[in-house]
Amino acid sequence: MSTWLLDESTRVSSANEALAALEAKVDRLAEQVAYLVAQARAAEQRAEAQADLMRDLAPIAREALAIAERELATLQPEVSFADLMRLLKRLIASAPLLESLLDQLESLRDLLDAAKPIPPAAVERLTALLAELEQKGYFGFLRESWRIVDNIVTSFSEEEVRQLGDNIVLILRTVKTMTQPEIMRFLNRTVINVEQETAQPVDISFRSIMQLLRDPHTRRGLALTLRALRTIGVQAQSADATQNPSAAPTSPTPERI
């Protein structure tokens, strides 16, 4: 009797375990069916949304195509379909350049955003400084300087500029020598004296000329002028002798004045 009860209890326990396993499978199957139903409903909602979007966009697309057709019809004498395709190809080929330009615009926007915190006092000082420079003539000087540079560029050829660059050291040395303080003072005094003498009446009689020739200052000026002319002649002769060594006569040493 006890054995039968034990076997019966074992069968009941096994049946309960099988029933529990079956219920678990049914629960999992129900979850999967619920997931599939939810996915189906979501797909149906997306399809309905797409259908609604297409219904809403269809009139807009038709209107846009009609407008584009009318505009292209007006442009047909000047623009052809080949021109549009060529423009489209250029836009596609220039995509990296357009992207780079957009990056630069973004950088400029960032710079402007960073410059916003600049205090108004600094802007006012900068404006006052620019106004002062304009009043003093700095900007006018720069404009005229640019005009001078433009005249130089348009007046000289590339070869002439190259020759100027080769002789720039000699030119600067010559200018440095001519602008020594003693030379500039001498030229200044000479110009002033010439202006004063020119303002006075001039006697062109033979007697007045002879008196001037007997004047020691006149004789010294003539001697210095002749010496300068002689120096110019010697330099010219040296240049000729460099080109033609056979023609190089010597000249006597001048007397001291």
The number of E-state strands comes to 0
Helix- and strand-based class?
mainly alpha
Q: Counting H and I runs of at least 4 residues, what is the number of helices?
A: 10
From N to C, what is the helix and strand string? HHHHHHHHHH
The profile of the biggest β sheet is:
none
Shape: elongated
From the alpha-carbon coordinates, what is the Rg to the nearest angstrom?
A: 52 Å
Strand content: under 5%
What is the helical fraction, as a range of percent? over 70%
Mean pLDDT value: 78
User: What low-confidence regions span 5 or more consecutive residues with pLDDT below 50?
Assistant: none
Measured between the Cα atoms of the first and last residue, the distance is 166 Å
Tag the structure with descriptive keywords.
257 residues; mainly alpha; 10 helices; 0% strand; 85% helix; elongated
Explain the overall architecture:
Among the domains are: 1-77; 124-155; 167-199. It is an all-alpha fold. The longest helix has 74 residues, at 2-75. It has helices at residues 2-75, 81-93, 95-115, 120-136, 138-155, 158-166, 168-178, 181-199, 206-214, 216-243. It has ten helices and no strands. It is 85% helix and 0% strand. The mean pLDDT is 78.
Summarize the structure.
The chain is mostly helical and 257 residues long. The chain is built from ten helices and no strands. The mean pLDDT is 78.
